[in-house]
Amino acid sequence: MNIIEQLMVEHAALRLHFHFAREKDFDAIYELEEFVRTCHARIEDELVFPKLKAWIPQSLKDTLGKDLSRLEADHKLIEKIGDQIRARTVEGDAETLTKRILLYMNTVESHNAGEESLIFPYWKASETEECEAKSGAWKVIQSFGLNRYFAITGFSGKLAETIR
User: Who contacts 146 (Cβ-Cβ below 8 Å, separation ≥6)?
Assistant: First the structure.
C-alpha cells in the first residue's frame, strides 16, 4: 500500500464515521477532529503536498498548483471550524455547535473528494520516496496513538505493517 492509498482508506473511514454521526449523535466528532488535525492532515501537509508541489510539471503549474494551494488552505479552514466546535462546546451553545459540526463534516468530505480527484492521481513516487513518506507517516501515526488510529481507520496491526 502506498501513502496515497493509505490516505484514501482514511478518507473512507471518515466518510463512514460522519455518516453514523449524522444518523445518531455527534459525540465522536471530537476524536475525529483531533485525528484529522494531528494525524491525517499532518501527513498530507508534511509529506504528500510538498512532494506533489516539487513534481508539478510546468504544463500543470497553473491548474495543479492552484488546486494544491486551495487544498492546503482548506486544512486551515477545517482546523478553524474544529476550533469553533470546541469553543461552542465550552460555551454550551447547542444550536451553533450542531451547525458547526455539520459544516465540519461537509467541509472535510468535500475537501477529501477534491484531493482524490484533483491531486492524488499525480502521485508518482520512486521506491525511496515512497519509503520515506511511509516512514514519516508511521511516525505521525505513532505520535497520534496506534490504538486510536486503528479505532478510527479500521486498520489492523497486519494492515498497518504495509504502511511502515
Answer: 160
